[in-house]
UniProtKB/TrEMBL annotation, chain A:
GO molecular-function terms, A-Z: GTP binding; GTPase activity; nickel cation binding; zinc ion binding
CDD domains: HypB
GO BP field: protein maturation
Cited PANTHER family: HYDROGENASE MATURATION FACTOR HYPB (PTHR30134:SF2), HYDROGENASE PROTEIN ASSEMBLY PROTEIN, NICKEL CHAPERONE (PTHR30134)
UniProt protein name: Hydrogenase nickel incorporation protein HypB
Superkingdom, taxonomy of origin: Bacteria
UniProt entry tagged with the keyword Endoplasmic reticulum: no
Regions that span the bilayer: none
Any Pfam family matching the protein: cobW
Gene from which this protein is expressed: hypB
Automatic annotation (TrEMBL), chain B:
Record organism: Desulfolutivibrio sulfodismutans
Gene Ontology biological process terms, A to Z: protein maturation
Binding site for Ni(2+): 2
InterPro entries: HypA/HybF
Sites where the protein binds Zn(2+): 73, 76, 92, 95
Gene Ontology MF term list: nickel cation binding; zinc ion binding
One matching Pfam family: HypA
Lineage per the UniProt record: Bacteria, Pseudomonadati, Thermodesulfobacteriota, Desulfovibrionia, Desulfovibrionales
Family from the record: Belongs to the HypA/HybF family.
Record keywords: Metal-binding, Nickel, Zinc
Superkingdom of the organism of origin: Bacteria
Keyword Zinc tagged: yes
Gene: hypA
Protein name, as recorded: Hydrogenase maturation factor HypA
Keyword Ribonucleoprotein (UniProt): no
Summary of the function given for this chain in its UniProt record: Involved in the maturation of [NiFe] hydrogenases. Required for nickel insertion into the metal center of the hydrogenase.
Length: 218, 122
């Protein structure tokens, strides 16, 4: 017998993601899911952001990595709360993992929670983790055609940081081309060219964060 | 490879539905996936097979079907399916607009039906 079963395969993840959304709403926390390829500069962006905005916001980080707690140590060195999730081979974070990590954090009084996803341009885009916004980082050494090749991640992101702009003289990367590809299926995506290493362009990103935080707080 | 997580989630739902319907055996399951969800059917089939091996579900068939991408033009609202694989820069066939189309379908990932053996003892 054939039984029609119209069920979203990722419904279990979506249910926990909704629980997380309620938890973050209750606590007034802006939650951001940070996604990119490995090595695009997510952790360096976090180090800069956590340091530069330390006097304005109370911030915490959930770090997702296949192995090691290297990144959690780096962000914890800024003074922010940090929890490491080792996915042991899993190529993305799930909402259940983020919920477990939240239990290790003191969420009271927290303004912004960064969820640093596993480095990967495909899988993290499929799994919501209770975030208000998805943020994608793309570094100029990766090629400006990445939004075209991995459209879903760019389609669902609110902001795109084009990192390592200090290397633009040495690579064939067009900021305009990358931005246009990203806007192909996402007219509203905000694009910020930055160099976390050279500390360039970060003010625009910080302004976006302030606005998103203010919108969340209501 | 997100197909492994997806296969795990798929199996959890299958087991729940089999229990609900009192069926001891799964014959097949049909999964529909949007073009943007980047599911590789072979990888999903391999994950499904690996996870069901040596279980009561061993031998069940996984059928997959891709749902084409349908966009709505930002400028004139015309709905269309880009013909080329380069769908990020798909010009609207009606007005030529290239940027900012809305994805109407192509992100789905769901089970359409299960084919189960008749329930025993009912």
């Amino acid at each position: 017998m054939q039984i029609p079963v119209i069920r979203n395969i990722l419904e279990a993840n979506a249910r926990v993601s909704d629980d997380l959304k309620r938890l973050f709403a209750e606590k007034g926390i802006l939650a951001l899911n940070l996604m990119s390829s490995p090595g695009a500069g997510k952790t360096t962006l976090l180090e800069r952001t956590l340091t530069d905005l330390a006097s304005e916001f109370s911030m915490a980080v959930i770090e997702g990595d296949l192995q090691t707690d290297n990144d959690a140590q780096r962000v914890a060195a800024t003074g922010a709360q940090a929890v490491q999730i080792n996915t042991e081979g899993g190529c993305h974070l799930t909402s259940a993992q983020v919920l477990a990590a939240c239990k290790e954090l003191n969420l009271d009084g927290l303004d912004i929670l960064f969820i640093e996803n596993v480095g990967n341009l495909v899988c993290p885009a499929e799994f919501d983790v209770g975030e208000d916004h998805k943020i994608t980082l793309l570094s100029v050494t990766e090629g400006d055609d990445k939004p075209e090749k991995y459209p879903l991640m760019f389609n669902i992101s609110s902001a795109l940081l084009l990192n390592k702009t200090d290397l633009l003289p040495y690579v064939d990367f067009s900021l305009e081309r990358a931005s246009n590809f990203a806007r192909g299926l996402n007219a509203d995506i905000k694009v910020f060219p930055v160099s976390c290493r050279a500390r360039e362009g970060l003010d625009a990103w910080y302004d976006w964060l302030r606005a998103a935080r203010a919108a969340k707080k209501g | 490879m997100h197909e492994l997580s997806i296969a795990q989630s798929l199996l959890a739902i299958i087991r729940e539905e089999m229990q609900k319907h009192g069926s001891p055996r799964l014959i097949s399951v049909k999964v529909r996936h949007g073009r943007l969800s980047a599911i590789v059917p072979d990888a999903l089939a391999m994950s499904f097979e690996a996870l069901t091996m040596d279980t009561a579900l061993a031998g069940a068939r996984l059928d997959t079907e891709e749902i084409p991408l349908v966009l709505a033009c930002r400028a004139c609202g015309t709905k269309f399916s880009p013909e080329s694989s380069d769908y990020v820069f798909a010009p609207c066939p009606a007005c030529g607009e290239e940027l900012g189309h809305t994805v109407v379908s192509g992100k789905e990932l769901y089970i359409e039906y299960l084919e189960l053996d008749e329930a025993q003892g009912t």
